[in-house]
Amino acid sequence: MWHHYLKVEKFFVWLLVFIPISIISAIFTTNTTLVFITTVIALVALARVIGFATREIALQTNPTIGGLVSATFGNVIELIIAILALAEGLIRVVQASIIGSILGNILFLIGLSVLFGGLKFKQQTFNKHAVGVSATMLIIAVVGLVIPTVYALSNPNSPKIPVLSDAVAIVLAIVYIAGLIFSLFTHRDLFDTTDEIRATKYRPVLTKKIAAIILFIATIVVAVESEFLVKSIEHAAISTGLTQTFIGVIIIAIATNIAEKTSAINFARENKLDLSIEIGLSSAIQIALFVVPILVLVSEIFHFGFTLVFSLFEVISIVMAVMIINYLSADGKCNWLEGAQLLTVYIIIATAFFFM
Predict the structure, then answer these.
(1) What are the contacts of 57-60 at 24+ separation with CB within 8 A?
(2) DSSP summary character for residue 332
(3) What is the tens place of the pLDDT at every residue in 285-305?
(4) Do 48 and 11 form a contact (C-beta atoms < 8 A)?
């Protein structure tokens, strides 16, 4: 297992070479498609670095601090990209990336984990009570994203749409804080996966100080790379024939979460499916309850015009995805076929977005 882990890490280390390549491409060439591709790969590597640094800190701190660090930096790449995209007026890209990240985490990430874990173990079990709490939180998050859209469809000319969006964002933020208190303080025993992580034989190789420095530097580099990415999206979409919606829902959402997907698959292959499912659900919840309220707040301050009004197809997709993951996780056990079913739903939705 440890040997396999090192091989995976080595792969992502090699991808770091795309950081200077993307910077050189952005500064010295006019090929926006090349800039887009190299920047996406660089962000994949940086996502792994951030994940590695946060895990190093979590292994050397108590569960509360580790949980807060993970919650804060778990979706920092998506947040930075979204803020820069809003500044460029790419509201549709931001909305699509939000939906894509949630779909990717609950269908693609968990689906891959259940599939690969199921191919090694005939049946796997997980803590259905902890997963149930997260799944319920995810339903609340989806309600918060869907209601403004439904209201806007019913009252398309209403001047209260932005007000409703802001109000919902505030409620989502409050629920997120309540969820943190629940999982990190009052009911920490249900969610404390620190011992499970340690049991995977991962040992810290960096001090907390060095890990924090790496985390800080990686975040700065992410901001630079995100700037290149955002400025190349429009031209890359035209040259490749892809829509900005598809780029946001599929490409950016998958690229910025590849590191989490590899970790989740590794945990599932070690028969620690609780960790895999919690990674997927927690990341989706953080997008909806942490990233979205911040984006609404930033939009209000700088007048970017971002609201929680999505397309009808996007909200239908996310509602169906949440219904499916809740149904499959209700019994606390799963097999490879259920993973394949989740992936099938994701592929169907992705195909539809390709033609939109």
Answers:
(1) 57/208, 57/211, 57/212, 57/215, 58/194, 58/197, 59/194, 59/197, 59/198, 59/202, 59/203, 59/204, 60/204, 60/207, 60/208, 60/211
(2) S
(3) 889 999 999 999 999 999 999
(4) no
Best CA proximity match to 230, nearest among 69, 84, 37, 79: 84
Predicted TM-score (pTM) of this structure: 0.87
**How confident is the model at residue 345, as a pLDDT?**
94
Domain that holds residue 302: 2-354
- H or E segment to which residue 310 belongs: none
Which of 269-278, 287-296, 327-336 is the most confident on average? 287-296
What pLDDT does 193 receive? 53
List residues bridging with 334 in a β-sheet. Answer: 124
Cα–Cα distance, 166 to 304 (Å, whole number): 13
Contact 104, 75 (CB under 8 A): no
**What is the number of structural domains in the chain?**
1
CATH of the domain at 62: 1.20.1420.30
For residue 291, give every residue at least 6 positions away whose Cβ sits within 8 Å of its Cβ, in sequence order, or none: 75, 78, 79, 82, 98
Residue 29, phi then psi, degrees to nearest 5: -125, 165
Burial of 61 (0-12, 13-18, 19+ CB in 10 A): middle
